[in-house]
Amino acid sequence: MDARKQNEPAPAPMNAKNRTTVERTSDREMVVTRTFNAPARLVFEAWTKPDLFRRWWVPKSAGVSLLACEMDVRVGGGYRLAFANGASKPMEFFGRYIEVTPHSRLVWTNDEGDEGGAVTTVTFEDKGGQTLLVLRDLYPSKEALDAGAGSLDAMPETLEQLDEVLTSGVGDPRERPSPGPR
Amino acid sequence: MVQFSKARLDVSFAALSDVTRRGVLEQLGRADASITALAAKFAMTLTGMKKHVGVLEQAGLVTTEKVGRVRTCRLGPRRLEEETAWIERFHQLWASRFDELDTVIDELKQKEMVHGRKKTE
After folding, report:
1. B106 touches A at CB < 8 Å
2. pTM for the full predicted model
3. Which residue does chain B place closest to A22, by CA atoms?
């Protein structure tokens, strides 16, 4: 809703990079917007097929590799991403899809943290051949969002630090059994 | 964990809550610019741009200096300090993800052109 009050993106030349905007809209919410020069159907596909998703979710600049990318994209289905970061055990991110509306909406939980994690909502809106993508991360508390941003320090250069934060935290998410979708 | 001063952040985030003002900061991150140049760049009246720069100035994100008839804006003493750096981290991550996503989507489009021969536009 908030994103829509912004101006409609002007049609960009096909080879120009569209602008990514990031906004903290409240104590608990971060909103990311971006326009893609393709219909929502294709953008949605790239978010829901693991073979495609794994190609862009971890940018090359991050210098880490994705060991596993399992996605069971349906309501109640799970996902699991595992990253290699050098010496130690892989880092895992996992959760469940709670809404899946083809070509227009995806909602998933982020369950790797100790307390309630953020809920991520992604909407895909067709704009005459282009797609306006809006991603919202809603955290359970302001502290959780601040901490989530803190952990982004790790992305990309200092992933070891994140590992330390995770290990020295209240619990070690890596020791939990993974939901193992499929 | 990094501690943020709440009042400071509130002013900063208010200043950063506007797409034009974020654009101005981005622009000033590359080079100093006059209000006139910024107004032209963002297709906006001089008065409108002055207002935006004023908000950024209040938040300490931008300073201005009048030399002769030109008021030059540059990033303020707080420039890319904690709060912008904080947002910038999200931004960098997502911008690089999405640039690669563009590549993936371009391939999907190409494939569809070849197979589907869809010529709607």
Report:
1. yes
2. 0.59
3. B91
